Amino acid sequence: MTKLVREIGYRALSTVAELGRALLFAGAIVRATVLPPYRPHRYLEEIHNLGVLSLVIVCISGLAVGMVLGLQGYNTLVRFGATGSLGAVVGLSLIRELGPVLTALLVTGRAGSATAAEIASMVTTEQLDGLRMMSIDPVGIVVAPKAVAMVFVMPMLCALFILFGIAGSYLVGVTLMGLDPGTFLSSLSSSVRFRDDIVGSMLKALIFGCLTGLIATFRGYFSAPTAAGVSAATTSTVVLTSVAILISDYFVTALWGFEI
Amino acid sequence: MEPAVAEASPAHVSFHDVNMAFDGRVVHRSLSCAFPRGRITVILGGSGSGKSTLLRLIGGLLRPTGGRIRVAETDITDLPDAELFAVRSRLGMLFQGGALLDSMTVFDNLALPLRERRTGSQQEIAGRVHEQLTSVGLDGVEDLLPGQLSGGMLRRAALARAMILRPEILLCDEPFSGLDPISLKRVEALLAGINRRLGTTLIIVSHHIASTVRLADQVLLLLPGRAVTGPPATLQGSDDPEIAGFFDEDVPDESAYHPPADHEPVPPGVPAA
């Protein structure tokens, strides 16, 4: 019994310590970003890298999700004679929830894991220590550009996902099912509100970008300098970020007050 | 532990009663030693004796659990990171695997510390990088990635990067390991040249006895529970079998291996299956 209590206490304390360390690490990233020396080319390079890594997967997934939504939505709405609302149903689903959440999960699996693995392998091969020995802060030159790039890239990829999703559902609804294009588009534009839906969606993407950037870099930076450490950093990045995205999604939705 | 302090030249780096432990496993206990200015000190010791840990303590990459460490007249034991960076600008470190950034070309790796310090124009930086690469006998590799270099070339490129800021103290972690004899001699000659021509203090961790004997002005031998220091010739001729044994490169007695009881001996002349 005492062993169990001790184990629970140890785990709780470890979690709190880990959270504290992550907060300090986030502070170091912010400090390295806003204080000189500035390295704009490193940030642009990382934005380009992360974008390229995730672009194709986000576009294809967006199109596929949109097509499935269009098909399912049409088949459901046709029972109620409400096929004219397909644009609204698909648009709101994609903009409010599926766009930010699925984009974040896809980017985590693709770019987040790659970021964690890259930093962890730099730990293993002493590249970060090499930087420290040249009096270069690894957080400033390696970590901050990757974390900040993730925050920038996420809303852009989310917008792209939504765009391809709507295109996919248009393809199914209008081209395959013969829905009137004007009805589809007017239902979409009349139901989507800028503040509630578009801004809310981008806010979610921004928050998910922060979470992915922080967790991926944190896990990589503090990984054990072994092959198993690289693997553990990658796996835990994907698992932790996915859970954090889904949990934070609920709170952002509740706090932002998406109107029905 | 008996103190192992060099007397010949003033200490450039010194340890005073340093303790170091990882998760309760003691690596150094009350270690006191000094690394003289402008000399080559080679650190020898068995696996797990804390040789690389010693280098990382000097570089401030690890903090001791007790005692004091002075590097270039500065006590770095409790120095905050920002101030530690100032001390590190007087140090260079050659890592065992090179530690070059594998996403950057050799040129960018060497130019990085200069660019970060904004020392000179791009043209001046390029000039210094080329000069540094030439000094280690590496021309025409500027546009290659570290992964495209051979082991010996990688070690020399890493040495060029470690020396680009002209450090007072150069720390080398196993600079000869995994090198063919020609590359080994080339790296050895480069290190000797750096010390003789620039007066750089060299602290080298090595397992290579022949290079140690040729290069070292002083050897710091880490033995279980004690550290011994002295010129290589003195230690080689020591009466202490533990010390002299470290320099003994005689072929070991193969009867030290005891095969399992059920192992069938292979008759002479018959190839093993």
What is the molecular shape of chain A? elongated
Mean pLDDT of chain A: 95
Question: Terminal Cα separation of chain A, in Å?
Answer: 50 Å
The helix count of chain A comes to 8
Please tell me how large the radius of gyration of chain A is: 21 Å
**SSE order of chain B, one letter for each helix or strand:** EEEHEEHEHHHEHEHEEHH
Condensed summary:
By secondary structure, chain A is mainly alpha-helical. Chain A is 87% helix and 0% strand. In chain A, helix 1 (2-34) crosses helix 5, helix 3 (86-124) runs antiparallel to helix 8 and helix 7 (194-221) packs antiparallel against helix 8 (227-256).
Topology summary:
The complex is a heterodimer of chains A (260) and B (273).
Chain A: H1 2-34, H2 40-77, H3 86-124, H4 127-133, H5 138-176, H6 181-191, H7 194-221, H8 227-256
Chain B: E1 11-22, E2 25-36, E3 40-45, H1 51-58, E4 66-71, E5 74-75, H2 81-88, E6 91-94, H3 106-117, H4 122-135, H5 151-163, E7 169-173, H6 181-198, E8 201-205, H7 209-215, E9 218-223, E10 226-230, H8 232-236, H9 241-247
Parallel strand pairs in B: 3-8, 3-9, 6-7, 7-8
Antiparallel strand pairs in B: 1-2, 1-4, 4-5, 9-10
Helix pairs in contact in B: 3-4, 3-5, 4-5
